[in-house]
Amino acid sequence: MSFDDHRPPSAELLADCVHCGFCLPTCPTYVLWGEEMDSPRGRIHLMDQVRQGEPLSPSTVQHFDACLGCLACVTACPSGVQYDVLISATRAQVERNHERPTGQRALRTAIFQLFPYPRRLRALRGPLRLHQRSGLSRLLRRSRLLQRISPSLAAMESLAPPLSRAERVPERVAAAGERRGVVGMLLGCVQREFFPGVNAATARVLAAEGFDVIAPASQGCCGALSAHSGREPEAQRFARKLIDTFEQAGVDAVVVNSAGCGSSMKEYAELLADDPSYSDRAAAFVDRVRDISEFLVEVGTVAPRHPLEVTVAYHDACHLAHAQGVRSQPRELLRAIPGLELREIKDSAICCGSAGIYNLLNPEPAQELGDAKAKNVLATGAALLVTANPGCLMQVTSSLERQGKSMATAHTVEVLDASIRGQSLPAASE
Ligand code: SF4
Ligand code: SF4
To answer: Where is the 4Fe-4S ferredoxin-type domain (predicted)?
Structure first.
């Protein structure tokens, strides 16, 4: 089986690649293995071959599956190759036209029956907290027993952040002082259930900056994990529902605090391009989507900042830096806090290995990348690691732990919140 006729990777876009190799040093899989077919250039060549009728063999699929979708190659490419569009089309083709082995299928089914559903994640919180408090979690990690049974399950266990009491965001939070607008807020799935403090901080910061915040409780998943895994019909279903929800909320902008979700929501116009009842609405929705740091810099901040004496290593989440081009805004916001010293991380363009569910499906390379990132983070000598994606926080924290190290971590918006409120930073997620 090769590609079918439903939106295969376009010949014109494939032809944009001039095989110069400028992207190779930033491609994490090429850096790890030095294999041409595990580089952007090699994958583009494979896409072209399959488009021309070569079979979608298991080894070809393996090269596509090994791609983290980090999009560092898009940033690095001087010819403007749209690898993001090409790999999205390819993943959807793989999902439709390739039968994975039973074990892989079962793992993917389990992941997609759990992560995009906040209620199911919420049901997990109790048992997971019990597991973490009982000391069993520490024992399992030390003994590496789970690692021997299933590396994916071990990765899932070690990535789960320490769970504290859930802090829920009300459906409406009123602006403090003069109202500058009304914004919708995406609650996310993992963010909502595993990092509720980040959502609470986001709502407080937006309100402090003069915005009414609407966070509809009925909102579901944005479809990011599904879209980035080629599950097109599922991603479209989630996208339509989210568009409906925020249209009803009547907001000026939809603010997102998770890089992976934001990048996927900005792709709704392409995702729903063939749907006559949603294509125009999707384009209008995309115009309103903003990452929280992008939004704050765009509207300008007014809430006074209190000093925070802390050194911060800022980690660029790939889906914020490479996919959305949001690099300067979080740095600008952090630098504006008196007393805060910002430090850059070496090889910042290279992915930490989280990449949505990549670290669950491909735990070994993900761990290698995570360990390299953790070393570079430690080398900054900073006291606090800051990033804007829950996946990156979990990935780097777990890598630090594997190296016997710990470091306080926070989302960008938690640092802003602490500064605005004149409080110390949230308890370290060590
Ligand atoms: S993707 Fe871009 S940078 Fe990489 S080989 Fe092709 S043209 Fe060169
Ligand atoms: S998306 Fe990332 S892993 Fe995939 S080819 Fe591009 S740089 Fe390599």
So the answer is: 7-37, 57-81
Quick check: CB of 74 below 6 Å from ligand 1?
A: no
Contact 281, 214 (CB under 8 A): no
Question: Best mutation site among 27, 39, 81 for ligand 1, i.e. most ligand atoms within 8 A of its Cβ?
Answer: 81
Q: Could you tell me the pTM of the whole model?
A: 0.92
Cα first-last separation, the chain: 48
Q: 11-97 and 172-297 share one CATH topology? A: no
72 lines ligand 2 (CB under 6 A): yes
Q: What percent of the chain has pLDDT over 90?
A: 74
Min mean pLDDT across 21-30, 110-119, 364-373 is at 110-119
CATH architecture of the domain with range 11-97: Orthogonal Bundle (1.10)
Nearest CA to ligand 2 atom 5: 40
For 172-297, CATH gives 3.40.50
Name the residue among 23, 104, 26 with its Cα closest to residue 61: 104
CATH code at 305-421:
3.40.50.11810
SS3 (DSSP) at 340: strand
Q: What is the pLDDT of residues 229-267, one digit of tens each?
A: 999 999 999 999 999 999 999 999 999 999 999 999 999
Q: How far is the CA of 321 from the centre of ligand 1 (A)?
A: 19
From residue 378, give the alpha-carbon distance in Å to each of 159, 359, 386, 406. 19, 21, 13, 9
Q: Of the ranges 9-18, 103-112, 120-129, which is most confident? A: 9-18
